[in-house]
Amino acid sequence: SGVAQFMQRGAVVALDEGDAFIVEQVERARAARDLVCGILAATGRARFTVPQGAFYLFFAVDGIADSRAAAFDIVDRANVGLAPGTAFGPGGEAFLRLCFHRRLDQLEEAAHRLAKWMRSV
User: Fold this and answer.
1) Which residues have CB under 8 Å from 80's CB, separation 6+?
2) Which of 9, 37, 85, 92 is deepest in the core (most CB within 10 A)?
3) pTM recorded for the entire structure
4) Residue 56 sits in which domain range?
5) Number of domains composing the chain
6) Which domain CATH number covers 26?
C-alpha cells in the first residue's frame, strides 16, 4: 500500500515548481468548474452548490430520484460516466457526482451531452 504513484508524481512537480504549479492547478480547476456549472445551470433542471475546494460536482436533476438508474441511462444515452449518489451514502439517492478535472474540451463536450440528456427526461 502507500501513496498512489500519480499522487507522488504530482507532489514532486509541486515541490519542484512551487507556487506557480499550485496557482496553475487551482485556475485550471476553477475554469473547469465554472464551465460545467454554467452549462448544467443553463438547463434550469440542475440543483447544486458550486464547489469551492474540490474537483467534483455533486448535483441533483429535478425529477430524478434514482441516481443509479439515471447514471446507467446517462451512460447509455449521453455516453457520459457519472457516479450515482448512492455510492456516497443513503442520502445520495437523488444526486450524481461529476469529476470536472479533465481537459476543458472533453469536459465541454461531456457537459453539453449531459445537458441534452437532462432536457430530454
Assistant:
1) 74, 110, 113, 114, 117
2) 85
3) 0.85
4) 5-120
5) 1
6) 3.90.1150.10
